[in-house]
Amino acid sequence: MMFAIGLIVGLLAGAVAGFFGARAYMKKYFQDNPPVNEEMLQSMMMSMGQKPSQKKLNQMMAQMKQQQKKANKK
């Protein structure tokens, strides 16, 4: 009987610890590697000497989303 209670308590403690550990890891990951947004694309293009239009920014964002979907399928 004590074995079953210990097993259940251990599983619950592991699940809680795993959840908070994964949450902390993802927070740190997104701080170190923020997702690219339109403002970042615009500043990158301007640093390369291009004056991007809103249409061009939208096209580039759509291309990036398509590539992410392709990478996630593999």
TrEMBL record:
UniProtKB keywords: Membrane, Transmembrane, Transmembrane helix
Q: Name one GO cellular component term.
A: membrane
Tell me yes or no: is Isomerase among this UniProt entry's keywords. Answer: no
User: What is the first-listed, main subcellular location in coarse terms?
Assistant: membrane
Instruction: Report residue spans for region: Disordered.
Output: 55-74
Places the protein is found: Membrane
This chain belongs to which protein, by name?
Uncharacterized protein
